[in-house]
Amino acid sequence: MNEVYARISENGRIVIPVAMREALGMVPGEELVLRMQDDELRITTMRHRIEHARELVRRHVKPGRSLVDELIAERRKAAQRE
Question: Furthest-apart CA pair in the chain: how many Å?
Fold first, then answer.
């Protein structure tokens, strides 16, 4: 299912077809991210955006390295200097 047609209601609502919601794993009440790109409206879930960010970090951070621990250590050093 690549393309379906929908109408915008008078109050601006659009119904996302069940098959598309299921394919994207969308559930009622889930937070969505809407973005304009090249004159198109793109919709994704916040959950998907977070997972995408995690994948990007995994590509650049070696396994076993903790960025959280590094940040805490930096903050402690800065606090000691104050």
Answer: 61
In a domain, 76, yes or no: yes
Q: Looking at the domain assignment, is residue 4 inside a domain? A: no
What's the whole-model pTM score? 0.62
Amino acid at 42: R
Domain assignment of residue 10, yes or no: no
Instruction: State the total domains in the chain.
Output: 1
pLDDT single digits (tens) 19-61: 999 998 999 999 999 999 999 999 999 999 999 999 998 898 8
Q: Which residues, 6 or more positions from 8, have their beta carbon under 8 angstroms from its beta carbon?
A: 14
Q: State the residue range of the domain holding 47.
A: 18-81
Structure-block tokens of residue 26:
């969308």
Reading the block at residue 7, the tokens are 């109408």
